[in-house]
Amino acid sequence: VSEPQPGPLDGLHVVELASEWTAFAGKLLAELGAEVILVEPPEGAATRRYEPFVGDEPGAENSLWWWHYQTSKQGVTLERSDTAGLRRLVGWADIVLEGEDVGRLAALAVDHTVLRGERPELIWVSISPFGHDNPRSGEPATDLTILAGGGPVWSCGYDDHTLPPVRGAGNQALHTAGLHAVAATLVAVIHRMNGGTGQHIDVSMHAAANVTTEAATYHWLVAQETVQRQTGRHASHRLTTPSMAVDKDGHPVNTGFPPTSVQGYRSIIEWMEEIGALDEFPEAVFLQLGIDKGGVRMADLATDVETQAIFGAARDALVFIAARLTGYQFFLEGQRRGLAVGVINAPEDVFEDAHAQATGFPTPVRRSDGRTVIHAGSGLLFERSPWRITGPAPELGEHNDLLERLDADS
Amino acid sequence: VGALSGLRICDFTGQLAGAGATRLLAAYGAQVIRIEDPVREGRWDILRGIEPFVDERRGINLGGAFNNHNVGKLGITLNLRTERGRELLAELVRISDVVSENFAAGVLTRMGFSYERLRELRPEVIYVSNCGFGHRGPYRDFKTWGPIVQACSGLTFSSGLPDQLPAGWGFSYMDHHGGNFMAIAILAALIHRSRTGEGQWVDMSCTAAGASLLGPVVLDYTVNGRPLRRPGMPNSNRSQSPAMAPHGIYPCAGEDDWVALACRHDEDWRGLRSVIGEPWIDDARFEELSGRLAFEDELDESLAQWTSTRGKFAVAADLRSAGVPSSAVQKPGERIDHDLGTSAWGLWPTVEHTEMGQVRVDGLPVHLSETDWEITRGAPCLGEHNEYVFGELLGLGADEISSLTKEGVL
Predict the structure, then answer these.
(1) Contact residues for A253 (Cβ-Cβ < 8 A; gap 6+)
(2) Which residue from A170, A214, A335 is facing B215, i.e. has the nearest CB?
(3) What DSSP assignment string belongs to B130-147?
(4) pTM, entire model
């Protein structure tokens, strides 16, 4: 068996102090090829107690949160007060990744100002709810409160505003900050490769959520307009037509962004003909008008009544077709006709999907007990330096011998 | 001088899913040269020339969203239907480090610039493509927008309230992270190149990237066999991982005003009790997490009654001072203009746009101590930098640029 090709970050050493905030960023770095040592206290990181558990049995080695976010890392334990131990680890690292409560490391005199002072080449990444350098630093926060205060929640929910706005699921405040943290870290690595020093990178999760709201922010910045949430579609400063439809089994599908081109309108008409439904759809006349006009321009949608009628007819036609097919048929048949429509998959559906399987998205990871667990793969296919899950999440203290090796090396 | 100064990107990206990537790299100092089609006035990017607008003026250069997503880039026009246009592009590729695009799969190849061709022109080129399903697999020709990516990846389904349609995301969340993942791909490939001298193609699937953000819910399915499509789920304002209660978004006094709060543990619960101080909250059933989860509906109802007569900022501030994570669901104007978490961060830089004038835009949620980001120049007007790029970089004379413009090549 030939050695697998190393990832793009091969050779970079990362010390991550285990925390909820850093877990995703550390996983990304590890799976892009960096060597990541995850440091937790001897009693185990708090996130080892996060649900769900394997077989619903709580236990430090059973947290699926931990299994999910800590793949490809090596785990060592260190007393939280063991600053000498931490210094040894940091001495090995190119990058330190931490999400500690602001001020905790400074109180122990092992924060970035001290340790970077001793080793200026060190890249030190702090991920915290409001950043280290902010009047709101230190406020208590969770994924929910960050997404609520930072903007995304305002834009998500339902047409019915007696229902609360909705938090997007899946720890997205962590992911959003993590992606920005990783991008900034790689920028710092490049700066160092070009002869520059290391640096401190201060990541604010609140700021990250704030710049991840698309139109909500720029409509305010540019025109002081406030978008309003709408069911399953873009929040908008003016009411738009529903984009979700239900298939013949009552499952929702996404009709997407209706076509604006002649070819798009032709495709819809042909599709309706094929399923024998064209005669039942009186608005087809507007689709023909769209063809006769040579398509429509998005810029006219706000003001031109004819454009609105054509655009609306295209959406109504897709809703009409969806109700006659399964969601998956609607998706496949529509896409084969060049129409950007979607099936609304549950997470479990994604792992059974033909394309996901054909492209190797479900990723088997072998655990030390011989059991193989399917994890989510990556969206990035590197031709020469592949993304890879190199192993399961570490058990408590699994790689403590690394500490001895570091001692021997130094 | 930014960390990425000296890096040149030949950029075909648009919308936000692609433009967001090179926006980020430009903020760190890369020279990003955005190539647009003079025949269609760059309208492949549907945000070109559409609302929001800063004033009553309308036009291809005046779109607020386009400006936001393309700050700091240079813009040129090049008609790739012409032989001379393709020659000039070849010259530009020869002096670029990166070629980036988010067309549907195959489009750039049909323009005559397959990856093989790019490598002929620039052997160590880094080519990063981002499309809905990547360039391989059964769905490679399918077309997507953010909402379709979110639908197919499982993100839409996961977000919502019980017995309702999915709320999904009220914006193109995966356009943001499509851009962020793409930026990470470019940076990681640059690091690989500087270590090995090799360029490469990174083929990105935005849907797979979305599915990589589903979180621990994935393992609840692949390990525990528990699908998310089950009674009472999804319920994304509550927290299943980790389990917390209370955890939700509650109504407040005021027009569409809401507050988010989360009790991470019993200590937070005691903090909440001390703030509320009413008899119902001393109910013994609520003392431990298991009881709060078992009677969560009842608990939420009582909490909602309590919050509904109070202001959202007051509730959040009172709870936070008792150590409980809480935040108002902030409206755009509130978080942008009245929140030190963003203003003291410098999150809304003002750029100078050649036609729009001064406009505020999204900043970055990170600060780097040595090579911080900088956003000062607005998005390019159509062909604004033709003279610089074709003249200074490619060495064309002023007469030639002028005649190529007349001939419709530029």
Answers:
(1) A244, A245, A246, A247, A322, A327, A330, A331, A341, A342, A343, A344, B151
(2) A170
(3) EESS-SSSTTTT----HH
(4) 0.97
Q: Are A202 and A126 in contact (CB under 8 A)?
A: yes
Mutate to test the interface with A, among B62, B186, B200, B241 (most CBs of A within 10 A): B241
Closest listed residue to residue A126, CA positions, set A191, A68, A196, A177? A177
A169 touches chain B (CB under 8 A): yes
- Report whether A307 contacts A296 (CB < 8 A): yes
Other CB atoms within a 10 A radius of the CB of residue A228 amount to: 18
- Strand, helix or coil for residue A63: strand
Structural contact between residues B114 and B108, judged by C-beta atoms closer than 8 angstroms: yes
User: Exposed (0-12), middle (13-18) or buried (19+): which is A333, by Cβ within 10 Å?
Assistant: middle
Our CA-based measurement puts residue A371 at a distance from the nearest CA of chain B, in whole angstroms, of 10
The residue type of A145 is T
Mean pLDDT of A282-311: 91
Nearest alpha-carbon partner for B322 in B311, B314, B330: B314
> With contact defined as beta carbons under 8 Å apart, do B351 and B377 qualify?
yes
Q: What string of DSSP letters covers A72-100? A: TEEEEE--TT-HHHHHHHHHH-SEEEE-P
Is 0.95 exceeded by the ipTM?
A: yes
**Could you tell me the pLDDT band of residue B357, with boundaries at 50, 70 and 90?**
very high
> Any CB–CB contact under 8 A between A366 and chain B?
no
**Dist. CA A171–CA B16, nearest whole Å:** 22
Mutate to test the interface with B, among A119, A144, A194, A366 (most CBs of B within 10 A): A144
pLDDT tens-place string over residues A90-110 = 999 999 999 999 999 999 999
Question: Quick one: angle between helices A23-31 and A172-193, nearest 10?
Answer: 50
Residue with tokens 């970077």: A116
- Beta B31-36 vs B8-11: how paired, if at all? parallel
B75 token code pair: 């813009």
Is there a contact between B226 and A142 (Cβ–Cβ < 8 Å)?
no
For A:248-277, CB contacts with B below 8 A are 252-254, 256-257
- Per-residue pLDDT tens digits for A122-150: 999 999 999 999 999 999 999 999 999 99
SS3 content of chain A, % helix, strand, coil (to 5): 40, 15, 45
Query: Which residue from B40, B146, B31, B195 is spatially nearest to B100, judged by alpha carbons?
Result: B31
**B139 contacts A341? CB cut-off 8 A:** no
Q: Which amino acid is at B388?
A: Y
- A106: its two tokens: 């400074």
Non-local (6+) Cβ contacts of B277 within 8 A are none
Is A192 exposed, middle or buried, given 0-12, 13-18 or 19+ CB atoms closer than 10 A?
A: buried
Cis before residue B38, ω within 30 degrees of 0? no
Q: Whole-number mean pLDDT of chain A?
A: 96
B-chain CB neighbours of A69 within 8 Å are 216
Q: Give the phi and the psi of residue B290 in degrees, each rounded to 5.
A: -60, -40
Q: Which two tokens stand for residue B88?
A: 């000039």
Burial of B346-357, coded b for 16+ CB within 10 Å and e otherwise, reads: ebbbebebeebe
Q: What is the pLDDT of residues B95-109, one digit of tens each?
A: 999 999 999 999 999
For residue B175, the SS3 value is helix
DSSP states of A169-219 as a string? Answer: TTTHHHHHHHHHHHHHHHHHHHHHHTT----EEEEEHHHHHHTS-THHHHH
Please, what is the end-to-end C-alpha distance for chain A in angstroms? Answer: 33
Supply the pLDDT for residue A301: 84
**Res. B297: pLDDT tops 60:** yes
